[in-house]
Write a structure and sequence with these properties.
mainly alpha
Length: 162
């Protein structure tokens, strides 16, 4: 198997600091304005899809055209507030999701690169330990713990051997 480098990138310490500062700023701004649902709560609530979103826009327009038809038990000012907040956060959420997707994809590629390089090194250690290269048997045994159930069949390394 060829050891292909899928991605080659890096971040400077200053860039990482700026990213962390930006995330901290976002966290500070939204801290008292957002909610975290439990997984069970997440199942209880929906979100607006494209069709429903368009329907809600029509409802809002009708409410504004005919305010006398808004039921007394519906708090129109709270509806307007919720609507406005959603209109504000959805574009932000889309941007954050795009950033998340890019970081997640990059993490997958670098993780694959790291794993493939580690596997190549492990296979080399396995090969040279089978050839009784001094100092490699213990390395191979240690690294082979990642793959339990496979027999290492590497001869014990004798400390008297050189």
């Amino acid at each position: 198997m060829a050891n292909t480098n899928l991605i080659s990138t890096s971040f400077t310490e200053q860039e990482v600091d700026k990213i962390n500062e930006a995330i901290t700023t976002i966290e500070q701004i939204i801290n008292d304005k957002v909610i975290n649902l439990t997984p069970e709560e997440r199942q209880l609530y929906g979100k607006l899809g494209d069709r429903t979103e368009n329907w809600v826009k029509k409802v809002k327009e009708y409410m504004e055209q005919k305010p006398e038809l808004v039921p007394f038990y519906l708090d129109k000012s709270e509806f307007d507030k919720d609507y406005s907040v959603r209109e504000t956060i959805i574009p932000i959420l889309r941007r954050i999701n795009a950033v998340h997707e890019s970081l997640d994809d990059t993490a997958k590629l670098v993780s694959t690169d790291i794993y493939n390089a580690s596997l190549a090194y492990y296979r080399n250690i396995k090969l040279v330990s089978h050839q009784n290269v001094p100092g490699t048997s213990n390395m191979y045994k240690d690294l082979s713990n990642q793959f339990p159930g496979r027999n290492s069949s590497v001869p014990e390394e004798n400390e008297d051997q050189v």
